[in-house]
């Protein structure tokens, strides 16, 4: 594997990866303090606005004229386009056998990608999360590949899925992120209904939950233990947790995850 990272499809996740690789933290980005060990990065012209911003921010990031130029100059190459764009993008490219193609495309299997790559390069799937921007994201990898793992270990760490089915279970869990924010939105709207202004209500909710995120990031306490640590028997937290996250809601959440898993694997929906 070479030392230049190519990226085809410069959306939000790809931008987060570049920011994370090029700076130590959000504070460093504000000060334009770059990491000394950041790799050379070549971006596709796809996502022109983001590509231009990243190239302007970091001296070792540049934008190629074409997607094929990204392939020709880079190894590994991160594919981060939308699932419906995969066929169009890959059928126009000549990807050599020696290149490692790292796919961040949800729901497209290794076999489906290999069918579009006549030279049969190595294909590795990953699930990077937004927290890679802060070097705090855990990235799922399948199949295991030491250089790809090393790249994402710099962004917070990796877990290797032994099978593609196991990898897809993690794809399913990433579908819960907007529901998390919808939960916070519901709490905010309840405060507003009680008479609070939106600005103050959102400030209170943000302040309440930002600390919980820090707890998750800075400790390895089992999550089940964190539930117990944030409530007392018969207390207010225990009341909301038991009345809202009852067995029915737990089963509905599990069923929703089953349905997403079926969608990303192409299996019949349960």
Order of strands across the main sheet: 3-2-1-4-5-6-7-8
Strand segment count: 8
- The Cα radius of gyration reads 21 Å
Derived from helix and strand composition plus strand pairing, the structural class reads alpha/beta
Shape: globular
Write down the secondary-structure element order: EHHEHEHEHEHEEHEHHHHHH
The helix content is: 40-55%
Report the sheet-strand fraction. Answer: 5-15%
Write down the overall mean pLDDT.
90
End-to-end Cα distance: 41 Å
Main β sheet profile: 8 strands, mixed
> Uncertain regions: pLDDT < 50 for 5+ in a row?
26-33
Describe it for me?
The protein contains 13 helices and 8 strands. It has an 8-stranded mixed beta sheet with strand order 3-2-1-4-5-6-7-8, with helices on both faces. Helix content is 50%, strand content 12%. It is globular and about 60 Å long. The two termini are 41 Å apart. Helix 8 (164-174) packs across helix 13 and helix 9 (177-193) runs antiparallel to helix 10 (198-218). Strand 2, helix 3 and strand 3 (61-63) form a beta-alpha-beta unit. By secondary structure, it is of the alpha/beta class.
């Amino acid at each position: 594997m070479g030392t230049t990272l190519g990226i085809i499809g410069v959306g939000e996740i790809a931008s987060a990866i570049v920011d994370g690789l090029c700076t130590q933290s959000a504070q460093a980005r504000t000060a334009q303090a770059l990491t000394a060990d950041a790799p050379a990065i070549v971006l596709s012209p796809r996502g022109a606005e983001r590509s231009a911003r990243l190239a302007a921010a970091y001296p070792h990031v540049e934008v190629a004229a074409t997607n094929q130029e990204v392939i020709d100059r880079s190894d590994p190459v991160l594919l981060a386009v939308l699932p419906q764009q995969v066929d169009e993008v890959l059928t126009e490219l000549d990807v050599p056998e020696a290149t490692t193609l790292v796919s961040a495309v949800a729901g497209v299997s290794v076999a489906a990608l290999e069918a579009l790559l006549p030279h049969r390069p190595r294909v590795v799937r990953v699930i990077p999360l937004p927290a890679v921007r802060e070097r705090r994201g855990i990235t799922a990898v399948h199949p295991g590949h030491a250089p790809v793992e090393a790249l994402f270990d710099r962004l917070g760490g990796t877990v290797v899925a032994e099978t593609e089915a196991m990898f897809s279970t993690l794809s399913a869990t990433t579908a819960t992120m907007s529901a998390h924010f919808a939960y916070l939105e519901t709490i905010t709207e309840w405060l507003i209904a009680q008479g609070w202004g939106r600005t103050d209500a959102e400030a209170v909710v943000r302040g309440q939950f930002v600390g919980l995120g820090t707890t998750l990031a800075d400790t390895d306490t089992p999550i089940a233990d964190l539930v117990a640590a944030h409530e007392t028997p018969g207390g207010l937290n225990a009341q909301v947790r038991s009345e809202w996250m009852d067995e029915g809601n737990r089963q509905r959440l599990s069923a929703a995850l089953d349905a997403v898993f079926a969608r990303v694997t192409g299996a019949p929906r349960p």
